[in-house]
Amino acid sequence: MKIGIPIEIKNNENRVGMTPAGVFELTKNSHTVYVQANAGFGSGFFDEDYQEAGAVILNSIEEVYASSDMIVKVKEPIEKEYALIKPNQVVFTYFHFASSETLTKAMIKSNAICIAYETVEDADGALPLLVPMSEVAGRMSIQQGAKYLEKPIKGRGVLLGGVPGVPPGKVLVLGAGVVGIQAAKMAAGLGAHVTIMDINMKQLRYVNDVMPNHVVTEFSSEYNIRKRIKESDLIVGGVLIKGAKAPKLITKDMLKDMRPGTVVVDVAVDQGGCFETTKATTHEDPTYMIDDVVHYCVANMPGAVPCTSTVALTNVTLPYIVNLANLGWKKACDMNPLLAKGLNIVKGEIVYEEIAEAFNWNTKVLQN
Q: Do the beta carbons of residue 153 and residue 147 sit within 8 Å?
């Protein structure tokens, strides 16, 4: 198979779909890998590294798409790429369709095979291709939140860890999944007082067992959220419903109950966000203010630390990529029902129900 690795052209996205080590595995299996010139530069990989691994370097993104049977990316295609995608071409990447009707319609029109990293499942229902980026984003949420709490950038002026004689800052984490646990771990490491909420008591018991005493658990309800936001300095949203839009746990009217300079970080922004006031931002312009509350809603947070993120991503995607390349997408998905759950749109048809539900669409209507 011919596999293409284009440059990511989303704003300030420095990751790349595959490391040279991944290319080596594919070429070892007699596949051809086309890498766009300088695609790996932001992640610390150079064209010479890819060539030594067996890749063919192409100068333009148009050449990469035109030459490839399968495109391996990091982020969803943006408008400039829509016309480059060919019918029957496999596109393997993070899509997060539920957050973008425009992208969904474009991929339906393309007649491509869209396999989404974020809906591939393990036997236990975990999302193995989402986990490493959720780990990065969860840890970054505290790193960024701590920064934006500084007064010169309109935060409350709170040091999360406090100092002797001054109490630490208070962090509220919504969701006790991968993002939430990593956020709580980082906040606790800084010395903050952390409250983590979820509706899954099994997860809360796990958090209670593994976290230090200054991380407390609480059942997630609107009443409890409304109570906690009044005293929180930093609020992290990390809830996830597989393939569907995130629930709105914090509504616009709740902002008036927060103290001026409170920072909210919505890690669920890729799936539409779990705050009603969320709108996707970029690393170039990451924050905005509503009712004196600082909103950080960057849709590709791990793109800011690509040297870590690209390697972490390739570690988990490569076995699936090799499988798709060796067997072809249909046979690979027939033989592996967990990979098949990554199929979102196939040749103009939505095959992942939650996507149609996100827009209240009838999939049969879309096909006509």
A: yes
Structural domains of the chain, ranges and CATH numbers in brackets: 2-119+306-367 (3.40.50.720), 131-299 (3.40.50.720)
* Termini Cα distance of the chain: 32
The dihedrals phi and psi of 212, each to the nearest 5 degrees, come to: -70, 170
Strand order in the sheet with 287-290: 215-219, 193-198, 170-174, 234-237, 263-266, 293-296, 287-290
Contact 196, 258 (CB under 8 A): no
Rounded CA Rg of the chain: 21
Instruction: Give yes or no for a contact between 284 and 10, defined as CB atoms under 8 angstroms apart.
Output: no
CA atoms within 13 A on the CB side of 234: 37
Q: Which stretches does DSSP call E strand in the chain?
A: 2-5, 32-36, 56-58, 70-72, 90-93, 113-116, 170-174, 193-198, 215-219, 234-237, 263-266, 287-290, 293-296, 343-346, 349-350
- Give the tens place of pLDDT for each residue, 147-188: 999 999 999 999 999 999 999 999 999 999 999 999 999 999
Is the sign of the CA dihedral 109, 111, 116, 119 positive or negative?
Answer: positive
Catalytic residue numbers?
96, 270
